[in-house]
Amino acid sequence: MDVDFSQAIRKSISFPLESFPNIKELKAVQEDAIISFVRRRDVFGVLPTGYGKSLIFQLIPGICRYLNKTGFPYPSNPILIVICPLNALIESHLKELSACGVSACSLSDGSVNIDDLIAGKFSIVLASPEAIVDNTKWRNMLQEPLFQENIFGLVTDEAHVVPKWGKGNAKERKAAFRQCFFRLGEVRSLLPLGTPVLALTATATPKVKKETMEGLSLKPDTHLISVTPNRPNIYLYKAKVNDSLECFDWSIDNIKLKKNTTPKTIVYCKSQKECGKIFRHFKSNLKEDLYFPEGAEKVSKNMVIGMFHANTLTKNKNRVSDSLFDPDGTCRVVFASTALGMGVNIKDIFQVIHYGPPRQADDFLQEIGRAGRNGQAAPYILFYKGNHLKNCDLNIKEYTKTSEKCLREIILKEFDETSTLLKSGTHDCCIICHKICLCSPDHLVEYLCQRLG
User: Fold this and answer.
1) 253 and 193 both lie in a single domain
2) CA distances to 179, 205, 358, 438, 446 from 169, in Å
3) Transmembrane ranges (predicted)?
4) CB atoms within 10 A of CB 18
5) Are 178 and 255 found together in one domain?
6) What is the residue-wise DSSP string for 301-326?
7) The domain spanning residue 29 has which CATH number?
8) Do 369 and 300 reside in the same domain of the chain?
9) Distance between CA atoms of residues 144 and 396, nearest Å
10) Rounded to an integer, what distance in angstroms lies between the CA atom of residue 240 and that of residue 248?
11) In the chain, N or C terminus with fewer CB closer than 10 Å?
12) How far apart are CA 143 and CA 189, in angstroms?
């Protein structure tokens, strides 16, 4: 029976996969996560950016329906609750699911009919943690008999924020940013016994894994799936800079030269204030080259640069994200906060720049992983000033200050990664390894110019 069931699950995967024409086959770890979750086992998947984490839960409702039709005890109208940390991520999921014919809704949409939700009209219900934990209306819905018949599982997307946002910091005397994240474990008590939980994220240190499991009340036998966060196609470069913003002159010149063919770039900033400052610097220096095509109306939709953070107007956020998803989009360089980091699935981001490093290694890898998701060579650049290092973890400070150690090795040691470092082509690794490479100086200069655009 168990062998037959395993075969049935594998066969069932191809049923909903037909709705995803760009996916030819699943990676082994995706299939592993799906099979364990469908068997109603808790799963914690740590898979790098661009690895297809969302596809894991997007396929689950279709798999349940197939198994129901073949006589296995699964709901005929399966519901999956997916917790997301940002509205922008919810909107991104809704667009993607709609394009693939998967019925989905958001609890933040005031027009959603609760009776439709209970009856299983929507296979995937997207929600913030506050909606599920603190909203009496939705908590009561979870306990409706028909909803309990249809609910299959609970998913937490970008699960690393469970402890990061859900717990306070006693050392720094900071309250939790969004306490409901660390209370998501309460939801298990409202759902039928045996309802599985799936946690997904791109990066998580051993400490973050442990705290996430605690916050979600994952079971001791949770199936842990982890893939190295090392991205060998990303070249690591860093430079200490001053306040003048001259470090961006090459990028401004690049835009003037290449205009709407400028390689897509995300510039992550430490604050909204710095986002605005650098945006204005580019705007004042680009002048007539700020808009495309030549002679175009001087409005935001024709700008080759954009800004994306929590307080950016929704229409401007939509302009930026729509343009980035379009291979021929006008907006080529975006100055952003972490709001543009989570769940952004853009295949052709050429490079990521940090103007000041993230505080922690997992955020660092999460954000630089936006570059080179198509597998092609991609540069990562860190520009930093002394005051950027305030409150950063020790390994981030070591990364910025070292002049001798491999940058890749420093950032990966937090994840107990030592065997995945580059073994050949030293100059492919980082600026430190580049300097000690035995290749000819002329070759190294040419290589560096190519990698940094």
Assistant:
1) no
2) 12, 17, 17, 46, 46
3) none
4) 11
5) no
6) GGBSEEEESTTS-HHHHHHHHHHHHS
7) 3.40.50.300
8) yes
9) 48
10) 13
11) N
12) 10
Last residue within a domain, chosen from 173, 207, 226: 226
Same domain, 222 and 238: no
C-alpha span between 334 and 299 (Å, rounded):
16
Nearest to 260 by CA among 211, 328, 317, 208: 328
Q: Is the same domain home to 212 and 326?
A: no
Rounded to whole angstroms, the Cα distance separating 220 from 201 reads: 19
Q: Which of 203, 226, 249 is the last residue of a domain?
A: 226
Give which of 267, 348, 251 is closest to 309, Cα–Cα.
267
| 167 and 86 housed in the same domain | yes
- DSSP 8-state assignment for residue 339: G
Residues 6+ apart with CB under 8 A from 424: none
Is there a single domain that holds both residue 191 and residue 149? yes
Query: What domain range is 366 assigned to?
Result: 234-452
pLDDT (tens place) for every residue of the chain, 453 residues total:
466 787 888 889 988 988 887 888 899 999 999 999 999 999 999 998 878 899 999 999 999 999 999 999 999 999 999 999 988 889 889 988 998 999 999 998 878 899 999 999 999 999 999 999 999 999 999 999 999 999 999 999 999 999 999 987 766 657 788 999 999 999 999 999 999 999 999 989 889 999 999 999 999 999 999 998 888 889 999 999 998 999 999 999 999 999 999 999 999 999 999 999 999 999 999 999 999 998 889 998 899 999 998 888 888 888 888 888 888 899 999 999 887 767 666 778 999 999 999 999 988 998 998 898 888 889 999 999 989 999 899 999 999 999 989 999 999 988 865 545 544 457 788 988 888 776 756 555 566 666 665
